[in-house]
Write a structure and sequence with these properties.
6 strands; globular; three-stranded antiparallel β-sheet; three-stranded mixed β-sheet; 2 domains
Length: 169
């Protein structure tokens, strides 16, 4: 018997997580959550749209994708990260019980990386306040761009393409 493809395994995990919440299973919910689960880093709306369209071989309406991403965040299946470039990126929550973690935003290539091994303490807040979410983003250069940090002539697009090209599949 042939083993399941990576897409089928990802679909099974995405479906299991949505079903565990007692929520309705839709093709787009499963495809978006699978994409986030398979990604090695947070993805922008545009990156998610491109990946889902490539895997599903059909165009995805931007508004429907946005609504599904918001739904995943509200359900606790994903979290949203905002870096100083004001682009929202989304990442699947790997562990519902995991403490909040910071993210690193490379200001040269624009990539955002989860720093899951670093913990962030939630500060004490005054009585009557309730913390719903904590977001910490560190800005700087990733290792790839750090090599070019002294060269201020390297355009962002060139840095982006060199990081994308060097990332393993």
């Amino acid at each position: 018997m042939a083993s399941k493809t990576a897409k089928a395994v990802g679909d099974d995990e995405a479906t299991r997580r949505i079903r565990a919440l007692g929520q309705r299973i839709t093709v787009l919910r499963v495809a978006v959550l699978r994409t986030l689960l398979e990604a090695g880093q947070p993805l922008s709306h545009q990156e998610i749209q491109q990946r889902v369209e490539n895997q599903e071989a059909l165009p995805i309406d931007r508004v429907s994708l946005y609504r599904n991403l918001e739904w995943l965040v509200q359900m606790g299946l994903a979290h949203r990260i905002t870096a100083d470039d004001r682009v929202w990126r989304f990442s699947a929550r790997r562990d519902q019980e995991a403490p909040p973690h910071p993210h690193f935003h490379c200001t040269r290539c624009g990539q955002v990386f989860c720093l899951v091994d670093a913990s962030v303490a939630i500060p004490a807040v005054p009585s009557g306040y309730e913390v719903k979410e904590l977001e910490v983003v560190l800005n700087g250069f990733c290792p790839q761009c750090g090599r070019h940090a002294a060269d201020t002539t390297l355009p962002r697009e060139e840095a982006q393409s060199s990081v994308t090209a060097s990332r393993p599949s």
